[in-house]
Amino acid sequence: MGCVAVGNEIEFGARLRRAIREHYGPNQEREFARQIGMDPTQLSRTLNGKVGKRPEMETLKRYADGLGLSFPEVLGWTLPEVEHVEPAPLRVVVVHGPDGDLEVPIDEVVAYVEAFPDQRQRDRLARWRENYSTPTYQRLCARLYVAWHSNLGLVLGALEESDVP
To answer: What is the pTM for the complete model shown?
Structure first.
């Protein structure tokens, strides 16, 4: 049977978890797995967005049957959208350092982070940019930038204190 693209696996897992809790009650994921004849570990991976592949249509039909929903509802096509308040876009990132605070424009931060030399990291960033709103993506890049800047400061400080030329 063919696989079905469900969009963001984490969002799909969250919607499925919500539907299970509405239908079976809180903390009843194992019972739901038993009812539909599914391994609880596999269901847990799906609920947490950690599946390595798209779900099979047969699996989605089992979800729908077990929840008393239609196939499109399981995919989230007709579920009501969860209200989400989008954060405001960032303008600058403030990095606190031993020589004072440094304000870096967000566009420079994003460009710096996206210039990471490892292709796997660039691919991950591209997926984040595609799946998240601009303000959320900016915040992810800002966190990476601050973490890298902090670690670089520690390394440079340690080198200055050492006898290594």
So the answer is: 0.43
Return the structure tokens found at 85.
Answer: 């308040």
Query: CA–CA distance from 123 to each of 29, 49, 83 (Å)?
Result: 33, 18, 29
Tell me which range, 7-11, 34-38, 48-52, 78-82, is most confidently predicted by mean pLDDT.
34-38
Provide the β-strand partners of residue 102: 95
Percent residues over pLDDT 90 in the chain: 3
Rounded CA-CA distance 151/93 in Å is: 16
Rounded Cα–Cα distance for residues 69 and 85 (Å): 28
Distances in whole angstroms, Cα of residue 83 to Cα of each of 80, 108, 158: 9, 31, 47
Is the separation of the CB atoms in 138 and 87 below 8 Å?
Answer: no
CA 146 to mean position of chain CA atoms = 19
One-letter amino acid of 35: Q
